Amino acid sequence: MEEYMKKNLLALLGIVLLTFTSIYSITQNTLASSKQQSIVKKISAGKDKNFNYYEFVKKDGSVNFVSEVNAKYPKTHLLPFIKDNNTGLNIKQKINDDGTIHVKYDGNPSLNDNFQNAVAAWNKLGVIKFKIVDDASATVDVHGNANAKEDANNPDYEKGNLGDTNNYVDYDSSTALADGTKMNYISKSDIVLYSGIAKASDNNKDHVIIHELGHALGFDDLYGQKDRGLVMFSTSQVGSILLNNLGACEKISLQHYY
To answer: Where is the Peptidase M10 metallopeptidase domain (predicted)?
Structure first.
């Protein structure tokens, strides 16, 4: 996912808006390859340390090429968190008094199960805990757009995007890590899932929402080739089979920042 900052930051009550735009590309060809109903053979076509490549041969003899991403993880290492442009400090969610981060979903009901899958994936790490709520206590709001008109009403939307995360930073509230590193808290995170995501497989939907929730937690995008196997890597091919693993890299990073 390619990150950019808004040129004009929102100046209201000491809160600033940071915007991160997904560049998950969406095409009919790649989407079609994610919906295999009559596969009779899966042939390995090559692999490297983070990817396995397969050809799926269907009953009619046609062949579709699909990559299985995140097959293996790179060496465990601390992942970067987002830095606020104004202060240069990393940002993260503030844990509520009940020990959780409240998150709410509304909008397209067909994405609700995928939203719950994504929440469960992060909670499984056992470091932070998202709590699904349906009231104003949510500091992370996830909205699924129902149609293209709703997409167009979002000023951040660009053709092909499947999701965006906007983090609002509270400059009046800060914290420090055990080593003294100062951080700003995120006062609010708004995640929008664009209507095009509805055409993707459930596997791909889960991946996009896991990625966007990662931004709400503070994780930055990854661009290095050594990180291609990680969920926070900047791009993933829609139509690929994504393993959607969250593991040691994300866990030690959450333990460091939280």
So the answer is: 111-221
